[in-house]
Amino acid sequence: MKYFSAIALFAATFFAPQAASGEKLISSLSSHQVLVSSSFAGAELVLFGSVERDGATVPRRNGYNLVVTVTGPRQTMVTRRKDRVFGIWTNAESRTFVGAPSYLAVLSNKPLNEIASIGVQQRLDIGFDNVPAPQTPALQPTDLLFRDALIRLKKERGLYIEEPNSVTFLTPNLFRAGIRLPAEAPVGNYEVEVKLFADGANIARTASALEVVKVGVEQFVASSARDHGFWYGLGTALMALLTGWFASVVFRRD
Amino acid sequence: MQIYLPIADLPVNIFLVLAMGLAVGFISGMFGIGGGFLMTPLLIFIGVSPAVSVATVSSHIAASSASGAISYWRRNAVDLPLALMLLAGGILGTALGVWLFTWLRSADMLDLLIAVSYVVLLGAVGGLMVVEAIRAIARTYQGKPVVLRRPGSHTWIHGLPFKVRFKRSKIYVSAIPVWIIGLIIGFVGAILGIGGAFLLVPMLIYFLRVSTATVIGTSTVLTLVTMGSATIMHATTNHLVDAMLALILMVGGVTGAQFGARAGALMKAERLRLLLGILVLSVGMRFAIDLLVQPNELFSIRLVGGS
């Protein structure tokens, strides 16, 4: 009996606030598949959604806040720093980050610190201080330098995006967010996580996914280079011969 | 017009790449070289990784030397026995080069080696060419005859055993230096993404005293075979050859080479050598500056693998 009440109490404390609020988060992506063809120069996706309320939902005086996190396939990255060795600037120290997202977009309707406290952000794994957490094993201050460089360089290439104004509420309950994928975005599965906040607390969440795939010539070239290296090389060499021969025929003067 | 490169994994402007192919092709046609030492740095400059650049340029050089080899062949300017003897060393050198390339890449030292080798090699060769060409030009101004080939002068190279006669090149030399030169060219070419004609031609002239009538034709055949096999080996071991990038470069390259050859025919040989020397030297200097001056961005990131 005591056992049951403990579970009941646990359930009450955990689920009660959400049950009482009754908000339901619904979202949809404009496309779940991004095709990388030879003319691929990046893509722009739109995430639409609305916050569904019912009669029992408590009013939120400060309105809703939204954080959208898009995470690309995880990769192992090496950050290297150049140093002067014997008068030459060359790569010296490096740090390896296992499981760093290849692509990461943290989109919200206002700066994260205004949406939730740092503690909440940490617990929910949102924001750049928490998500690309290649904390292997524990980051020393010097390691942080390398991690910051990784984030900075990825941002320069458009692979890491932090935009505290890219989620717009069209009405108090209806929102849209633009997700930019640069041309360099690697192929694979991307997770899209939408988290709804009110008064500093996470009250609903929903997840979805999108896939970046190579198609057509791109796919053919990439897969044959990987799977049939010798024949691919032979084909390229023959193509070179043919191009050279063709030129000597076209431009023949003697 | 943007086009996405499947192996280099980045979008490039197709006209920019085509123009690069044309420009390098023009220069290569003008001087009778493959132009790899220009194309590889240019590709690195537009953002292609050094490894992909080196591997892809080998197929580009194969294409431009193919068209060259065919026209030299028609003019009977190829010494086939000499080319085959050079190739015996060349193929082995290429295999060694691709093997070292793979090893350096896994040890994270490839980029540094490419940069340092470019400085040393291009600096030395470019410097020698400039000095030699200036001397030649000065001699012609003073009215003295230009001495390119000294038939009577023998060096220690001519004392080596296993002598072979190469009729068309008018030489009678040991097979050992021929074989070693082939080995060096194949090795250097595979690592640095250069055909090596700008090294091979002087070596053939100064060490082996090959006749000027066959030297370029023979070196073109050697370049064709070593670069063709480097393409296959790079594709088999490292999967880094970008066929789409290669195709655009080739089309630009072989076209530009035709116009370059016409422009080159209008110039005096010493002037051409001086220009080429300056070009080689400045590419070497460019790499030297990168190594010696503190870069704006000290950090770089590299993908090691998915997970």
List the chains of the largest interface with their residue counts.
A-B, 67 and 68 residues
The overall pLDDT of chain B, averaged over residues, is: 83
Strands ordered across the widest β-sheet of chain A:
2-12-11-4-7-8
In percent, how helical is the residue content of chain A?
25-40%
Measured between the Cα atoms of the first and last residue of chain A, the distance is 103 Å
Poorly predicted regions of chain A:
7-20
User: Radius of gyration of chain B in whole Å, from Cα?
Assistant: 19 Å
> What class would the helix/strand composition of chain B place it in?
mainly alpha
Q: Topology as H/E string of chain A? A: HEEEEEEEHHHEEEEEHH
Q: How many domains, in number, for the residues of chain A? A: 2
Measured as a percent range, the helix fraction of chain B is 55-70%
Q: Secondary-structure element order of chain B, as H and E?
A: EEHHHHHEEHHHHHE
Query: How many beta strands in the DSSP annotation of chain A?
Result: 12
Q: If you consult CATH, what is the topology of the largest domain in chain A?
A: Immunoglobulin-like
Q: Which outline of chain B best applies?
A: globular
- Taken as a percent bin, the fraction of beta residues of chain A is 35-45%
